[in-house]
């Protein structure tokens, strides 16, 4: 079995992505997650570039990682400066890591026209830097920047750079597709040429500017590369780096390479979402392997098939990467979708059950009008249970009014909602303020109901989305409102539709409250 080393550079290369910035504490928390995932090397940052990275290197020493080695990164010494006197090299060694990574120029154009030095001087800088560092630390990794572009422009010089680094006793040569423009067949042919002259371990570092980073990395491994660099979720400068969340399961499940254990692989989705959370990014639903939609099925034919044999429309078992199968509800749904969702709720139905047929017809009719149940599964559950007679009426609306008031041009508007409801034989009339009409209405209805249903105090509105459905009708168009609510344990989505945005919001809010009350009631009976 081949020994593949996984090298994560989320904390350095990943943070060069637009809108991403991690604190030192964020980096420590991510490092612990990466270690649990089975990553071999964690590149923590560039010590000479900012105080935050040095803070990370100082603080991470207090944590015991189970297998990952922390790596400090830097460039080679500056032209005309011996490595022992170079500020960046000094900071690199001050990080006190047992592994360092040095990036050097392997594209002749880069050396001559960007650094402004001769090709011979570039080789000497690489040699001197690596030789010096090998006297200070146990492991030196050399990133040959722009290697594939350099090879295509001047193969002899690019290979000379690798030989220089090897002669200086680096421990691994990493071939970098820094511009992300190389094609898989180019990666393959160039690696085959490199392997003829070098027996030292080879690595791959790809960017995703041509949407080829994962494919290029996988093919590099097929060609004998043993050191794989990438980032979680493909974070990185411009279009990002090779995505380890795709590379790891492909290596493990498709190529049969035990780069992580089976148990570690099940943590993949959790780690991906953790990093998104700290980056303050909304996880993309359609991300392969770890996305919410990666194993989601909408078409009725698909659902019918996966119920019998999941491999018909799933290339792997979702549980292997910590994900799970989902069935969506829409006007494309068939009876299988309804039965599947009912079974998830513990309700046994068959294709001939009148509830299945009526619910399917209702969903198709409602979605034709503009409803959407893909993000509103709580509304579907209420619809199904109502059809089966399981849902009771928790309250009656006697009326509500929403007032928006703006007194001055530069003043923030104030919203107030007044509501009257009836629970059993008791009437409750109350009012509440909000930063908008929907927020005021949400506050008012829950304020009115909390004395009857105290558990609503732990419920909160988490997300609110509005979409105009019939755009050609201007301000008279229908709008669809999707509301996400939650409590200490669960999150659920509901939907409303109307030409009046307040009415659409009311529908979604009422469904959200009814779902909470019904769910709590059912749990108390178990």
Please tell me about this protein's structure.
The protein has 526 residues and is of the alpha/beta class. The chain contains 18 helices and 16 strands. Strands 1-2-3-4-5-6-7-8 form an eight-stranded parallel β-barrel, surrounded by nine helices. Strand 1 (5-8), helix 1 (24-37) and strand 2 form a beta-alpha-beta unit. Helix 1 (24-37) crosses helix 2 (51-60) and helix 8 (184-197) packs parallel to helix 9. The longest helix has 25 residues, at 501-525. It is elongated, with a radius of gyration of 29 Å. The two termini are 49 Å apart.
Quick recap:
With 526 residues, the chain is an alpha/beta fold. Helix content is 40%, strand content 20%.
Core attributes:
3 domains, alpha/beta, TIM Barrel, 18 helices, Double Stranded RNA Binding Domain, 526 residues
**Per DSSP, what share of the residues sits in E-state strands of 2 or more residues?**
15-25%
Main sheet specs: 8 strands, parallel, barrel
Shape: elongated
The structure class reads alpha/beta
Q: Approximately how much helix is present in the residues?
A: 40-55%
Q: How many domains, in number, for the residues?
A: 3
Q: Write out the CATH superfamily name of the largest domain.
A: Aldolase class I
CATH class division of the largest domain: Alpha Beta
Q: Mean pLDDT, rounded to whole units?
A: 91
| Separation of the first and last Cα atoms | 49 Å
Q: Provide the CATH topology of the largest domain.
A: TIM Barrel
Strand order of the largest sheet: 1-2-3-4-5-6-7-8
Quaternary organization: single chain
CATH architecture of the largest domain: Alpha-Beta Barrel
Number of DSSP-assigned strands? 16
Uncertain stretches of 5 or more adjacent residues:
none
CA-based gyration radius: 29 Å
How many DSSP H or I helices?
18
